[in-house]
Amino acid sequence: MLRSYIKIAWRNLWKNKTFSFINILGLALGMACSLLIMIWVQDERHMDRFHKNDSRLYRVMENQHYTGVINTFASTPGILAENIVKDIPEIELASQMLWENTPLFTVGNTFEKEKGRFVQGDFLTMFSFPLKEGNPKTALKRPDGLVISQKLADKYFKGQDPMGKTIRIDNTDDVMVTGILADMPEASSLKFDFLMSYDRWKKANKWAQEWGNNGPRCYVLLAKNASIDKVNAKIKNYIKTKNKDSNVELFLQNYGESYLYSNWDAGKQNGGRIEYVKTFSIVAIFILAIACINFMNLATARSVKRSKEVGVRKVVGAYKNSLIGQFLGESMLITLLSLILSVLLVLLILPVFNTLTEKHLSLDFSNPTFLLLLVSLALLTGLVSGSYPALFMSSLNPVVILKGALKFKASATYFRKGLVVLQFGLSIMLILGTLVVYRQIQYIQTKNLGYNREGLLYMPLEGDLAKNFQAFRQELEREPGIKSVTCAQSDPLEVGSSTQGVRWPGKDTTQLMLFSQNAISYDYVKTMGIKLLEGRDFSPEFSTDTSNYLINEASARKMGYKDPVGKEMTMWGKKGKIIGLMKDFHYNSLHTAIEPLILHLQRGANDTTNYWGSVLVRTQPGQTKQAVASLETSFKKFNPHFPFKYSFTDQEFSNLYKSENTVSKLSSYFAFLAIFISCLGLFGLATFTAEQRTKEIGIRKVLGAGVPNLIGMLSKEFIQLVLLAAFIAFPLGWYFLSGWLEKYAYRIDLEWWYFLVAILSAVLIALFTVSFQSIKAAMMDPVKSLRAE
Question: Signal sequence span per UniProt (predicted)?
Answer without folding.
Answer: none
